[in-house]
Design goal:
The chain is an all-alpha fold and 362 residues long. Helices cover 75% and strands 0% of the residues.
């Protein structure tokens, strides 16, 4: 078999594997609450965004939550905990769509006021919104957020971990401002926060990752559903979760690099690293994002940048694994080794298939 035939066969196998993956995800049922929430999102987002999220994504996220559920979560609370994590992710995605697809400062201000304040301020924000479609979308965010915060109080360890969860959400809300202007975001964050050498602190990692904290937040919600977790281990657990977040973002950035390049996503670690090393310029990325269909040699550029970044990605994966394993040895309340294995497998499989799924749609 020659090289061209082999490539064609591999391409066919990838497409078949991806189709099987899509079919399996499509069979995953969403709970009544989450399905209702997503139906409302579809109705309202249709009037605001060019590309509302497909239902496949929500089912894919549920699969990821269930695959990475910590073994310390009380058995009778696993289903409820999973649903709350999905609801939390949904709120984040709803706001993220404003940043990614509209980039409107006033609309983002209103959305963050909804999740950052009490009922009176929420009413005040809604009363000032004159666009009916935007108002409906803000009501969606309000309803999801208020339900989430109310339901979290029913978890047995809510009060134990409430301050840390609040801080994680606070970092996330602040980071949406950084992401609103992607150029500013790239300059502000800087590639110095991407290099995980011995001198790096967990604080630097946290700053780089505050834009996408859903894994950390999800794990915090899991701890709220655990009567077994020892609070004395919380500092180590948070560090462990943060490195899991890095790993998840890294896999996502690697496998979805082509689509992020076409979207001009300066928040991608891979894109920041490629700019830092001179493999691609910010101006080139802006040109691609403006007219990807007219950019000559785009596929060749994608292939070249990925090849040049491959060693960096591989080394960083190994470094992350070492750091998580080291921190995990300090944790006794849940099986850190098993958590590493499950999250690594989930990140790799899910993001790889998501990358293939995106390619299949083109």
């Amino acid at each position: 078999m020659n090289k061209e035939q082999n490539q064609l066969e591999q391409s066919h196998l990838t497409k078949e594997k991806t189709k099987t993956f899509i079919a399996e995800i499509d069979q995953i049922p969403l709970s009544i609450k989450i399905q209702t929430l997503i139906n409302r999102y579809n109705e309202t987002a249709l009037h605001l965004f060019a590309e509302p999220r497909k239902e496949f994504i929500w089912k894919w996220l549920k699969s990821g939550v269930e695959q990475t559920m910590l073994d310390c979560v009380d058995q009778e609370l696993k289903e409820k905990t999973s649903e709350l994590i999905q609801e939390s992710i949904a709120v984040v995605v709803f706001i993220d769509d404003i940043v990614d697809q509209m980039q409107e400062e006033r609309f983002l201000t209103d959305a963050l006021a909804i999740v950052g304040n009490g009922e009176e301020e929420q009413k005040n924000v809604l009363s000032k919104q004159t666009d009916s479609f935007k108002k409906d979308y803000l009501v969606l965010i309000k309803d999801a957020w208020n339900d989430l915060t109310l339901e979290l109080r029913n978890l047995p360890r809510f009060m134990d971990f409430k301050p840390d969860l609040k801080e994680a959400y606070g970092e996330l809300w602040k980071a949406f401002w950084q992401a609103l202007d992607l150029k500013t975001f790239a300059k502000h964050q800087g590639t110095d926060l991407l290099h995980l050498g011995d001198e790096d602190t967990i604080g630097k990692v946290e700053k780089r990752l505050s834009y996408n904290m859903h894994i950390v937040i999800g794990n915090m919600i899991m701890l709220m559903g655990s009567s077994k977790f020892e609070k004395i281990e919380l500092k180590s657990a948070l560090e462990f979760f943060l490195y899991d977040q890095v790993a998840g973002n890294l896999e996502n950035d690697w496998h979805t690099f082509p689509i992020e390049l076409k979207q001009g996503d300066f928040a991608s670690a891979l894109i920041l690293y490629a700019i830092d090393k001179g493999y691609i310029t910010a101006e080139e990325i802006e040109q691609i994002a403006a007219h990807p269909e007219n950019y000559n040699g785009l596929q060749k550029l994608i292939k070249t940048v990925r090849e040049k970044c491959e060693d960096y990605i591989r080394d960083k994966r190994l470094r992350l694994l070492e750091m998580r394993a080291k921190i995990g040895r300090e944790i006794k309340s849940f099986d850190a080794g098993e958590a590493i294995r499950r999250s690594f497998a989930a990140h790799k499989n899910m993001h790889e298939q998501l990358g293939n799924f995106i390619a299949l749609l083109k």
